Amino acid sequence: MACDLRQSPRPLPARRHAAACPARPRTPRTARELCRFTQLIAEVLAGQRNPAQMRSLLSRGAYVLLLRRSGIYVCARSPRVRATYLHSEGPEATEVNAVVDCGNRYRALALRVAFAQHTWLCTHLETDVGRG
Fold first, then answer.
1. CATH number of the domain bearing residue 119
2. What is the Cα–Cα distance from 50 to 108, expressed in whole angstroms?
């Protein structure tokens, strides 16, 4: 059976962009700050950034997880966060879900962050790669 290429393709689903983070404090920079924070974590997971640089931005448990998973994303080039989705868990906590482009494949990354002492602090992280 032949495929008729003249038919119009099905429309793509609407893309969801990173929404403004509803967590407090509400600033226009919140979504950008969390996207940048996620990018830095992705670079550690790819082995392209020293985990010690992120120490002050992670809780003890999250830092141990990051150390264990450092270098777990195999990337031919620097990883890039392609999409972030923010979900507020309460007035001071937010979950960040991200799609990370590693060149040869896409990876999933989830962070739980809390706003503490005038900055974001990562309290937990999960990746699509097996637990370790």
1. 3.10.450.540
2. 20
